[in-house]
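Thread title: Can someone regenerate the structure for this chain?

I was given the following input by a collaborator and told the matching structure tokens would be attached. They weren't. Posting the sequence so someone can regenerate them.
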Amino acid sequence: MWLCEKALQCRGIDIASFPNELMHAKADTAYDAILQMLYSYAPVPGQHLSERDLASKLNLGRTPVREALIRLAAEHKILSIPRIGYFTRPLVEGDLLDLYVVARETLTFALTRMRQQVPDGGAVCDELSPDELALRAEAIFKGIAGGSSNCEVCKIIDKFCFCSHPLRMEITASELRPAFTKSLARLTDAMPQLGKATSAVASALMNHLDVEQRAVSRVQDRIYVADRKTFPTDVGPDE
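Best answer:
Regenerated them for you:
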């Protein structure tokens, strides 16, 4: 089950009353570590995620790793194939385009319900790495979602950012980078106007999403796409 970091506070629950072990369980440690690995874009789409290998790499038991993989699969951040195992998600054009449609509607909704200012993400410059540029954009998306104080909105945008992260990595490492950087800089400059000229923020946000979405087809040719019907069947299930 997906749980945003503000869910307990949104429900009026004092997290200080919870034992420290609950907030820092081994399964959470495994989840955070695997998620960071996935965000690093080291695994290619459709790559097998072995419980045994991950447990060894992270120096953790297989039980917390298994729990983390189950959670990631429930959040649709990885794929679970019965009796075969877990895999990184394929980057499918149709799925990406659908994600952008949902993200537009969700972020537009969130902008109308902002209850707090989005933290400054910093200036956008040419010296930033592809990963840093991608994360800057995602920080703004998540900031807008979090500012709405709506856990469902946060859930949707969290999934959107994760699933479209490889796309941003490809954009920012290609000849499409200048257009991405320019639109992201415009969006960053507009963010302080939230609450004063929200329409200007919305315009800059939609413009940036346009830049990303128009790149989907062009980037698709450079990314290995694993067909959902052709995942390896010779990979045995983790014992």
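The beta strands are 48-49, 78-81, 85-88.
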